[in-house]
Structures are given as structure tokens and as C-alpha cells.
């Protein structure tokens, strides 16, 4: 074995060891592997940073932005909300999510299906007080299994189809994958229903300082619009519609803002509802129940571009100008150009209108205004900003716009008109252009450590190919497979594709393995279809690492997973795919 091959294998082995050790963060391990490859000469200096221009980096970054915009719209949450509210047990919530993403992945690119449903999983986890890690990895694995069902589900299927066309003159059709893919998908769903217990269930994304504050008891007020579904209902019906997550503490009516008895009054158009609850629940209630947040028609919002409007949480200090005064008396908007959106006061339930409430030292308030003005005004008012936390109260929901953009991107990729990377990159740009996701929020939602890991590892994995390591593996496979029965040869090709995918990513694995499989089948006088199908299944089923497929990478940050976590659930699932997949392939595609 030449020295470059020895070095390439040694660096990969050391890298895997550091990943499994877990004492160094994954992006730092990837950086060290890249530096070692450059020093060893297995990666040329001029190619050291080529990985950062690879499609997978663009796909993952864009998918994170698109997913954030879809989550912000609340559409998926609304669609699954009714169902999830009736299903309380985690294992059945998991079944809903995994089944949905699996069969959606058969119709569209699996990365797009997963990006669409991640927000719903995060909402379910929060409502169930469960770690998102319980849902996200099984969903990623389900999306990989769903991608096996059709030609457009995942890139390996398309590449394998082209290889078959080059060999036989006939490509695989849209549903030629379905008999094998459906069998494996259903098997995988059943396994994940019970097998999720193999995962570490305490993994969580690193908490922010804002999340550590955990301020949930806010009061805000909103006006009932003419088209609101709340008109004619009472406070009890309102609580039912918001799943008891928001409480009406007062109803103010007419120009005099007279208080109406909550227990007996019916809500009318024009009423001002004083509500109390979690910021996310308040925001969802305002968006879904036909309400207009107080202050949204003021100049701080209407005369500033939506992307330049923001909200900030702050605590009122003892020396603040606000102490003992109300927002109305201080003329907070006309003097300072900011709107008071919400108030949280520990241990007290307020029933008067927000603008008339006398503020006290220690109150936590939410102010809205131009982002370049808020820090200055906070200092002038004597308020101390809290640690940054995502707050959507007072932001604009764009309804179906993000879903329409994502749907258009997936349709273009399904029809083969636009590559996946360009489609998702364009979708991310449109999300920001339309205001579905403000530019600042878009950058905040990108998982930069994961992109660093991907960009650094791509040239490291390619070194295995450029040094001839893959040819060495191919020769070993050929010499081993000739002594095996046909089913054993198919199994060997499937296992080899599974084993190589974490190092080369799925598309590169197919490009390397498919010609090897086809040539091997021809040499021993067998039809190539079963072997090509084994390559497609093996390359599409990377359940052992976060780097072989972008779906696994996408959930790593939100799920708080470590590198070694994937094998705990993925190893038995991989074994199950081999046990079920080989007979299915042999049955559907006789050799």
C-alpha cells in the first residue's frame, strides 16, 4: 500500500476516534483532520478549502434558513396542531412525525420534507416537555427511508438510474424503487416506533442565556378584528381555542375602554383583549384568532421596513423613568419612538389595560421599535436589556408565503429543472426578500459549526479517492464477491455502500460504487439491476454518522446530538435494512 493511502486511512481512523471520544467538538475535529491532511500531502493546499463551495454546505445552510421561515409562518404547526393536541404520549407523537416525514420524502426531496417538519417536532417537544432529540433523529432516519421509495426522493436514486441507462439503455423509472423502498420504509417506521428508546433522551441543543431566564408569564393586549372567529364567543371558548395556553384577564370595550365582566361577556369586534401567557402562545393566538396586537398601527412599525423592526426584553431598573408611570402617561411612543407590547410582573395578575398599567422597578417589559433605535432608548429610559432570546411577539406572519416558496423549490427539483442546491439557495433568498424571515434572523438560524465541519471534511474524505484508496476497496470487494452466492454478493455491495457513505457522502458513494457494482455483475454473468439497487439502498441509508447525508447533519444542532449518538439507533436499523433489503431486492430484481 503506497504511503499516501496509508496516511489517508490513518487520518480517517484518527478522526473517527476523536469523534467517538467526544472530548473535542466536532467542528474542531474536522479542522484538525483537514490540517493533518494538508500537512501529510493527501489534500493539496490549493484544494484545502474546496469543501466550503460544495453543494452539501449550501443545501444544509439554505435548508436551515427555509426551515426557520416555515416555522415562523406557523402553517405546519397549525396543520399538525389539532392532531398533536389529541396525542399526548411521546411514542405516538413520534409515529405521527416519522410517518409524515417518511411518506412526504417519497414525493419531494427528503431534505425538503425534513426541513418542513422540524419546526413541528420542536413545538411538540416543547408542549410535551420532552427533549427534541427524541423526535429529530428518528425523523431524519425516516426521511432517508422515504427517499428510497421514488426516483426523486434522494440523489443516489437519480445517479443510479443514470448508471443503469449507460449500461442497459434503460433508466430506472419513477416508481421502480417503490417495491423495495416501501418495504424498507414500513419496516423502518415500525422499528423506530419502539427503537427510539435506544437513543440518549437527554440530549438538548445548547441553551442560550435567554432560555435560561424562562420568563413565560407575559401580559399583552390585542384588538378583535371584524373577521375574527372570536366574535360572539366567551372567554371560556377562547381558552379552549388556545388549548388553555392563553388567558383573558380583561375585556376593554368602546372609546372609554370600559371593563366588561369576563365570565358572562361575549367578545365583540373592536374589543381590546388583555391576555396573559407564554410569548409564543400569545403570538400564535394573535395570528390565528383574527387579532391585531396593540401598537402595530403606530409609526414605529408602519414607517419602518419590517426587517428593521425588532423587539427586545428589558427589566426596569430602580432609577428608570418608567417607575410609577404608565406608557400612556409617559407618551412612550410619541416621545421615544417605541411601543410597549407586553409586561411580566412576578406574582401578580393585572387586569387593567397595558398602556394604563403603572410600571414598577423589576417589571420585565417587551419593547418594539427600529433596531437601530432600541439600544439608545433603553439607556435613556433606564432599562436593562436581558440576554438575547428569540421573540416573535409583534412580528409579521406571512402565512402561506414560506410554504409556497418551499413548495416551488421542491417542485423545481422534482421536475429536474433546477439542482437541489440552487433551488434551496434561491428559496432562502426569497424568504429574506419577502420578509418571511428577516435577514438578521436568517443568519442567527444557520448552524455555523456544522457548516465548518462539512466544509473541512469534504476534502478529507475525497483524499481517500484521490490516493487510490477507493480502488483498493473496490478490488477487495471484487475478489471477495466472486466466491459468494448471488444473494451474498448483493449483500456485500449493500454493506459496502453503507460503510463508505459516512466518508464520501451519499452522492459520491454512488459515483464510486455503482460502476464497481455494475462491472462486477457483468464479470460474473449476472444482471446489474439488483446490484445497482443495493448501491442505491446502501448509499441512501447512512444511519451511522451525521456527515454522510445532509438530513442527519440538519438535525445535529437542534437535537444536541454527539457524533456517537447516531450509531446507537442507526446500527440496529442498518442491520434491519440489510436483513429485509437483500431478500426484497432479490425478489423484485432477479439476477
TrEMBL record:
<feature type="domain" description="RCK C-terminal">
    <location>
        <begin position="207"/>
        <end position="291"/>
    </location>
</feature>
<feature type="transmembrane region" description="Helical">
    <location>
        <begin position="399"/>
        <end position="426"/>
    </location>
</feature>
<keyword id="KW-0813">Transport</keyword>
<keyword id="KW-0812">Transmembrane</keyword>
<feature type="transmembrane region" description="Helical">
    <location>
        <begin position="5"/>
        <end position="22"/>
    </location>
</feature>
<dbReference type="Pfam" id="PF03600">
    <property type="entry name" value="CitMHS"/>
</dbReference>
<dbReference type="GO" id="GO:0005886">
    <property type="term" value="C:plasma membrane"/>
</dbReference>
<dbReference type="InterPro" id="IPR006037">
    <property type="entry name" value="RCK_C"/>
</dbReference>
<keyword id="KW-0677">Repeat</keyword>
<feature type="transmembrane region" description="Helical">
    <location>
        <begin position="28"/>
        <end position="45"/>
    </location>
</feature>
<protein>
    <submittedName>
        <fullName>SLC13 family permease</fullName>
    </submittedName>
</protein>
<dbReference type="GO" id="GO:0008324">
    <property type="term" value="F:monoatomic cation transmembrane transporter activity"/>
</dbReference>
<feature type="transmembrane region" description="Helical">
    <location>
        <begin position="90"/>
        <end position="122"/>
    </location>
</feature>
<dbReference type="InterPro" id="IPR051679">
    <property type="entry name" value="DASS-Related_Transporters"/>
</dbReference>
<dbReference type="InterPro" id="IPR036721">
    <property type="entry name" value="RCK_C_sf"/>
</dbReference>
<feature type="transmembrane region" description="Helical">
    <location>
        <begin position="569"/>
        <end position="589"/>
    </location>
</feature>
<dbReference type="InterPro" id="IPR004680">
    <property type="entry name" value="Cit_transptr-like_dom"/>
</dbReference>
<keyword id="KW-0472">Membrane</keyword>
<feature type="transmembrane region" description="Helical">
    <location>
        <begin position="174"/>
        <end position="194"/>
    </location>
</feature>
<feature type="transmembrane region" description="Helical">
    <location>
        <begin position="503"/>
        <end position="521"/>
    </location>
</feature>
<dbReference type="Pfam" id="PF02080">
    <property type="entry name" value="TrkA_C"/>
</dbReference>
<dbReference type="GO" id="GO:0006813">
    <property type="term" value="P:potassium ion transport"/>
</dbReference>
<feature type="transmembrane region" description="Helical">
    <location>
        <begin position="476"/>
        <end position="497"/>
    </location>
</feature>
<keyword id="KW-1133">Transmembrane helix</keyword>
<feature type="transmembrane region" description="Helical">
    <location>
        <begin position="134"/>
        <end position="154"/>
    </location>
</feature>
<feature type="domain" description="RCK C-terminal">
    <location>
        <begin position="299"/>
        <end position="384"/>
    </location>
</feature>
